[in-house]
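Worked example

This section walks through a single chain of length 695. The input is the sequence exactly as stored; nothing has been trimmed or padded.
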Amino acid sequence: MKYAIHYDQAGRLRLRLGQYAFSEEEGWGIASLLRQEVGVQEVRTCAQNGSILILYTAEGSREAYLRRVGKLRRNEIPKAEPTGEEEVRAIDLRFQEKIGGMICRRMAMKLLLPAPLQIARTCLRALPYVGGGIHSLLHGKINVNVLDATAILASLCKGSFRSASSIMFLLTLSDILEEYTKKRTETALTASLAVHVDKVWMVTEQGDVLVPMSEVQTGDRLRIRTGVMIPIDGKVSEGEALVNEATMTGEPLAVRKAAGSMVYAGTLVEEGSIAVEVMAVNTQTRIQRIMDLIAASEELKANVQGKAERLADQIVPYHLLTAAMVYLLSRNVTKVMAILTVDYSCAIKLATPIAVISAMREAANHRMMVKGGRHLEAFAQADTIIFDKTGTLTEACPQVSVVVPFGRYARDEVLRTAACLEEHFPHSVAKAIVRRAAEEGLSHEERHAEVKYVVAHGIASELDGQKVIIGSPHFVFEDEGVTLTDENQEKLRQIGGEDSAVFLAIGQELAGAVFIHDPVREEAAQVIAALRKTGIERVILMTGDGEEAAKAACEKLGITEFYARVLPEEKAAKVEEIRAQGHPVIMVGDGINDSPALSAANVSVAMKDASDIAREVADIALLSADLWELVTLRQLSQRLMHRISGNYHRIIVLNTALLLLGVSGILQPTVSAFLHNMSTVAISGASMRPLLPKG
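Given that input, the structure is written out below as tokens.
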């Protein structure tokens, strides 16, 4: 394709291919191709003027980009789906075009249409509003639709067609503004929610092989185990599992899946292991489900938002009654019009949801995915925060410090076997063991049979005909009854220290222990101090680790309350106990074992590297590993509640002033309507402003 270089400076190249040289979808396809080139940071395309903007680093090659564009053929330009950023830009552009077109049409109609035609057009435009008011009355509702219809009808009956037109124009403008804010936020949330599965276990004749997700094709078979999200649509070919399909059906209880059953992308294997024949590898399916989840989150409106909507409708009957009383006392239609054209409910009903949605969008921009407005409200109101330890307050990348063999087992054999079992589970401790085995060059081919995660800190499998288990002391020694001899206990005592340990047993014989050095995050103590300054009264640590490890971590973090050797169900029970005492609770965790506690809290947060189940259960998911995001989220949620409260006060003051000025005859209804609608739009627009300072 022919192009002209419109701008060419280091790191920034803009090309022009001519107006409408490609469609919007083709523009996204061109951007997708160029992003594959070395050094490309960002590509923006504009179908209206045929421009391509390429931002690149010093590693990039300007000539390579020009060759790539030059080789494109007009009839062979690939089409692609937009990225989250591209879709947001497209929404911005459409909003600007819609507002610009609306204003231009209004000005053109005023200038070009004769007065009789303008009146006829105003009457036609009023029909949907009047119909909406009648529909509400027929269903026994006296709401904002009735008030809008009454104000417009009163204007028309009085002959104030310009006033009726202005009211409808401003109502339409408010609707467009709300639709734009909502759609833009949903798009940002969609991009944040998208789950990218990089690698999967493929079933082959040589055994299960870890392969990139990009290599998976229809007809392949994948092994999906406990705690893992299913990345494709397919049919179970072998095995049995309980699958949580809440993301698709809304049903919270897991469903049994066996050979012949269908499973779908985005659902979770809660227990068991299945081999799935791939029926569809389609990212669109995942995106559509995410959109359904966001739509469902409308049911998760903040309580304050629901109250605002109910209050808005409850005010309307009193508003109409006031207008009727003024008419009976004064017989002045102008004063009645002044009341009907000014109301509290419109601004209350509009500004609150816009504030909530905008806050959710801002959270998404800060790489925090909030699944509903009520979770922000709960986060602002909580006075207690409970942290899991490993992977949450400690480094997301713990290290193996010591491997201790027992009896006839060698050190390398202990580490190799431990890695063989742990590689199937996305927990930071499991990753540390697998990483250490890889660093030492210890190959751990899968010789074991079924791998089963036991939600009490353990994994069980079979190796060479013997049962093999790995997990916490409670799981290995108490639940499974493995004996810890005095000799082995003395050996462990000599190592001592603050490190946590997982134990490996083969055939009821203790084979070894792997100690994990799990240092607290550098920023954790400061984050906890900052959270206390925002009104958090109690900070609690709950962990399955031993008391010494928990106590040492708390001393470094400035936490005075902790619970050690806590099982998953005990974590959940403790959360419920604290809630029963009247304390709203935030629970922060990352593991499968944290899921019951996450579900029990008023509001729950999953860390960036959390397991799929934890991320699915949590109300809020952090997409950044930085603990400071919790402080950011607290400030964001508290400022949201402050903004909503401030909006109420402004709405009451402004509209009361307009009503008094209108009833006293100082303001004409047209002016009152204009000022009322402009104040509504202004308050709603101000509700879209960022809650947090930039930087």
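What to look for: Confidence is low (pLDDT under 50) at residues 293-300.
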